[in-house]
Amino acid sequence: MSHAAMQSLIRDVARSERSNFYAAVWRGETEFSKLPMISREHLVRTPLPERRYKEEKSLVKIVRDGGAAFLSEWCFEDIACEAYGARSKRPMVFMTDAHEAIEKAMWCYERNMLPLMGEKDADVAAFTAARYKIDSLITDEKALEIFAPRIEGFSEPVLDISIIGSSFDGAALMRFAHLAPRIRLVLALPETGAFAESPLSESPRFSASDGCVVETAEDVLVVSKTRMLATPIVRYRTAIPSHMYGAQ
Amino acid sequence: MERSDIAQVGARSVEAVIAGVPVPTDRLLLRITSGTSGREPVMLATTFAARASSDASGPGGSESTTLCFLGRRSARLAHALVVRSASVPLTTLAVDLSDLSEGFADVIAEYRPDMLYGFPSAMAQAFPFFKPEDARRIRVILTTGESIGEHLETAMRRTFPNAVVQELYMASDTAGHIGARLCPHLPKHHFHIPEFVTVEIDEPDETGVGDILITKELLPGIAIERYRIGDLGRIIEAPCACGAARSLEFVGRKGIDYMKLFGAILRREEFDRVMRYFGFVDDYRVDVKRDMENGLLRGDITLRVYSKRGAGTPALREEIARRVSENLFVTANKTLGALVSEGRFAPLKVEFADAPFSSGHKDIKIRLHSQ
After folding, report:
1. Predicted-complex ipTM score
2. DSSP letter string over chain A?
3. Residues of B with CB below 8 A from A49's CB?
């Protein structure tokens, strides 16, 4: 971890005139390892305008958490810094959640790649994917389950698949191993973005993405990002079991 | 060009992108249209207009927080690209139909939108979720993809008292933007045409109404040319107060909102005008067919009305038929009643519907039924 980068972010967040969302939780503490954690509950009960630390051109997503919903805002510049997929010539985004799909497609644009947006109808998506001769895919497990049979029928090979999610059963996911020579699992939450990745294997071992800190606390993962996001992520306690991380 | 030609042009445009085109990536977009009647979807690779980013802004190009109501995910992506290319901080949230459930009212209250953009019929599904204080915050409603029906526009103005209603004339099979009604001087369904689109009217009738043909470049060297979009309209060659030299009037979808038969022009707007007299009528539909009477072909119109007050009496039906016949102009100077007297149309029939009419993606009022 870049300790200096994280401490710099903490200073900026604590001093922010736009929001005191974190300041109210931290109560003057500034040392990273001692900062009280936040969780999804904090986001659910704090309206977006009160936890917005910068105002730039952005997308807002609706994130459903059981019966509750909260908003997650992503500035385009920040989407660019995420580690959602691989560089390719003709990427496709085919995801279950429409909000996530649009964000990942914007990630492609931010990385100077023209994406094909996979429509919800898998047959339409497959038709357009074959027409565009996609060479990479950003997806989630549920969407890939639907799309996999169609990929097998493509005349052009898909070289890279990024499966985005917050929970992975490596052994079960091996059923997709034949679809592409490179398949990565990307640990991400809608509100944190991507924070770790692993090559597909029966026992994935994840590595934290650049600019991300992944800790373990009480058997769950705690995520921090050094970048000032619309709602920064600092010691964000997830519900992701730490045993799944297979930490490197 | 017809729709089958668009599919071929689309395929060429995608092939061109695969081979490499001299256009920056962030000015390119892959658009997908719906496949209808068993036809494959059409896919187009196109540049998108930088000027369109101004359409995503609030009045005067100001900042806006937009709720976007578009169907296709590729269309929502296109809107996000427009927001991204803007020169002012814009924020967008693309609403999915699945979002319109419990808790969406709280989402609106938290997000604090001041602009709605997209299909009016999709927006309408969100109206019930707006609390009055959130509805009053809406300054601009920018519609696209379908005409705003009279009832919907009334509901829009009632729900959002501080909003200006504007229109974009767009079609996915023409790679988006055709015209825009953003200036305050244009009446509804009238649009200014951007410089990157050429609009012609094919086979105009005596009122200047004919098939709208679109010519537009998709990519350098690849264009849709004189594409018959399936809409009817006319060019208004008169300068607008905003400075635009001409405008396009969208009359309706061919064979649906506007039709010609037996020397009569049946226009939805004219039916709307006449039906306003009947305040108790909540909705109506017009069924048109060709009928044979004494060996002669003539038009046959059935006006179906729905009123929450319930079915009307035979006397009321006759009154409606009489008044509509006397007041509905179907030529420049003749009413339906006159054409009935001439034998070109059967006397108007009026029926009361037991239940509200269903509204699909397009609010179609007039239908020509084949025999």
Report:
1. 0.95
2. --HHHHHHHHHHHHH-SS--HHHHHHTT---GGGSPPEEHHHHHHS-GGGG-----SEEEEEEEETTEEEEEEEEHHHHHTS--S---SSEEEE-SSHHHHHHHHHHHHHTT--PEEPPSSHHHHHHHHHHHT--EEEE-HHHHHHHHHHHTT-SSPP-EEEEEES---HHHHGGGGGG-SEEEEEEEETTTEEEEEEES-SS---EEPTTEEEEEETTEEEEEESS--SS--SSEEEEEEGGGT---
3. 110, 112
